[in-house]
Amino acid sequence: MKKVVAILVLLVGFAFTANAQKAKTISLEQTKGKFIQQSLTLSEGAYVFEISNNNVGHDVGFVLAPKGKTDEKHHIKNAYVTSLVKNNSKSSSKKVTLTKGEYVYFCPLNPTPQYTLTVE
């Protein structure tokens, strides 16, 4: 019985460790009408997106969505910045867990083209 309890404790510990996965920060910079980084390739995992507004002249945001599904209902809401990014400042998203596939990122407020983010 002690072995069963010990195994259960270990399994629960591993589950908590996996859920507490540390997010990597991805920094993206916007200028007038574009992102400086025009494509990204990432590994599966947890990320926080830090968005810089480099003298755009007004507030900007950030949208991440599956490629081909860019209407608002498909946006990855946790990827939205937690507050609009004021001119010459930064803001970050919440933690986003990405799985293999293709995504696009863009800013409808700037506005920018849609750029490709590939998760391998």
TrEMBL record:
Question: Listed GO molecular functions?
Answer: copper ion binding; electron transfer activity
How is this protein named in the record?
Answer: Blue (type 1) copper domain-containing protein
- Chain segments annotated as transmembrane: none
Residue intervals of the Blue (type 1) copper domain? 28-108
- Per UniProt, which keywords does this protein have? Copper, Metal-binding, Signal
- InterPro entries membership: BlueCu_1, Cupredoxin
Chloroplast among the record's keywords? no
Q: Which residues form the signal peptide?
A: 1-20
Q: Which organism is it from?
A: Tenacibaculum gallaicum
